[in-house]
Hints:
The chain is mainly alpha-helical. It contains 1 helix and no strands. The protein is rod-shaped, with a radius of gyration of 61 Å. It comes from Streptomyces heilongjiangensis. Component of the F(0) channel, it forms part of the peripheral stalk, linking F(1) to F(0). Its main location: membrane. InterPro entries: ATP_synth_B-like_membr_sf, ATP_synth_b/b'su_bac/chlpt, ATP_synthase_B_chain.
Amino acid sequence: MSLLPVDIGPLNPPVPELAVAAVLFALVLLFCAWLTPRVRRVRAERAAAPHGVEARAEAVRREAETERARVAAPLAEARHDAARVRLRALEEGAAPVAEVRAEARREYATIVTRGQTRIATDRARAEAELRVQVSELASNLASRILGEQVEAKAEPRL
């Protein structure tokens, strides 16, 4: 059975096939009508997902900043306390060092003074001994040069 009484070839479909096609078309249309809202909802969720993640990341960042600020204050105070302790220890350690240095300077001055005194006395003694020997050596040399005996006479030097 044909839809039209005229023979137009393949453009004249049989009625049972046309009924099956209409039912199938209605089923596909209903399926698309059911599927379209779900697809839109899933696409909207996917589009909103990064924004939600960004919002959560921003909230976590703010929370981390407040936590860091809360922890930073005691840490800064602890650093200041440590610096004060180091400074106090340095000052306390510097006092004995200064005392030891002062004692060392006093000992140095004492040793240098004793050494200078000893050098001065040794020099005066050596000078006195050499004066006697110099006059003897000079008279011996003069005796050799002149060929006759010359007496050594020690003259005090002023």
